[in-house]
TrEMBL record, chains A, B:
InterPro entries the UniProt entry points to: DNA-bd_dom_put_sf, MerR-type_HTH_dom, MerR_fam
Stored PROSITE patterns: HTH_MERR_1, HTH_MERR_2
Leader sequence residues: none
Taxonomic lineage of the native organism: Bacteria, Bacillati, Actinomycetota, Actinomycetes, Kitasatosporales
Protein name: MerR family transcriptional regulator
Molecular function in Gene Ontology: DNA binding; DNA-binding transcription factor activity
Region annotation Disordered: where it falls in the sequence: 1-29
Length: 154, 154
DNA sequence: CGCTTGCTTGGAGTGCGCTCCAAGGATCTA
DNA sequence: TAGATCCTTGGAGCGCACTCCAAGCAAGCG
């Protein structure tokens, strides 16, 4: 694997929205990553990256003169954001919708904002559910812990 | 639909572990619910309830003299707990494993506790991820909010 | 030059968690 | 008693998000 050695310099700005926090090695400027490098950075498989492009979840990736994909820092930023959305359980179709809105342009700012606000509400709800679940788990775990201690004492 | 009117009385004790917090209407004592009543209570489909039983996720449900399922309060408690586990994203296979441990008996207390503790760790991790994601969403949303305000002022 | 490794494509396959179907028996309401 | 509604089963089907395959082109190395 020939990873262009990373000199992480911040060039920032994902699409037209402020940059996401950086999570990956990020060589500077005109960095052009192969698909396997991006796979290593993101943890996604090359298959999945191609599939994302096919379904319209990637804003058209640049190509080398021989037709191979060359991903940019912008692409990595976008993938990092998609990774976050994936964690929320958002369906891929909704992410594709968001990607389409970006392709259309600035007149979709309002709709994009609404989409993200809906997502944020969903995430808050998920967090509450999970905290609820933790309470149940705590309860059961302490039951087992107590029962086992008691049996030791027999 | 003929729901036996709910007189929620606490008969408690899910399997051999302390009862989970009650989430459903719960008539008292020897209540025997049909599959569609349980579907209404839990939000699961009758199909799913039968499927749960087939794969071993339900401790054998009682039957009427003609062979129809009659669910007990204990069954509802168990389904409520399964619902919590489902929210954590735990694979059904792992829940089946837990159900099997319960069937075996008290000598599996330790393994059950470990399983639940692993699950709790996973849930805490998920919560942290989601909180991270909320931060990113906040960031992007305020970008859009700011951009739209700015364009109004033009 | 041959070899290996990596990339390309369209399309088929996989695993999970349901979801539904067909055919027949049970139960309820008038 | 008729008719509607609910329940039973095994097995097939579905939607999602990948995941892999085959066949072929391209680049680097001894």
């Amino acid at each position: 694997m020939t990873l262009t050695e990373s000199t992480p310099v911040r060039t920032a700005r994902v699409d037209d929205c402020a940059s996401a926090p950086r999570a990956h090695p990020r060589p500077d400027g005109a960095a052009r990553y192969t698909i396997s490098e991006v796979a290593a950075f993101t943890g996604l498989s090359a298959h999945t990256l191609r599939w994302y492009e096919r379904i319209g979840l990637m804003p058209h990736v640049d190509r080398s003169h021989t037709g191979q994909r060359r991903f940019s820092n912008k692409d990595l930023d976008w993938l990092a954001f998609v990774g976050k959305l994936r964690l929320t359980g958002m369906p891929v179709a909704d992410m594709v919708r968001y990607a389409e809105l970006i392709r259309v342009g600035e007149e979709t700012f309002e709709e994009r904002q609404e989409l993200l606000e809906r997502t944020r509400r969903d995430v808050h709800r998920r967090i509450a559910e999970l905290q609820d679940t933790v309470a149940v788990l705590d309860h059961k775990i302490s039951f087992y812990a107590g029962a086992r201690k008691a049996s030791e004492r027999v």
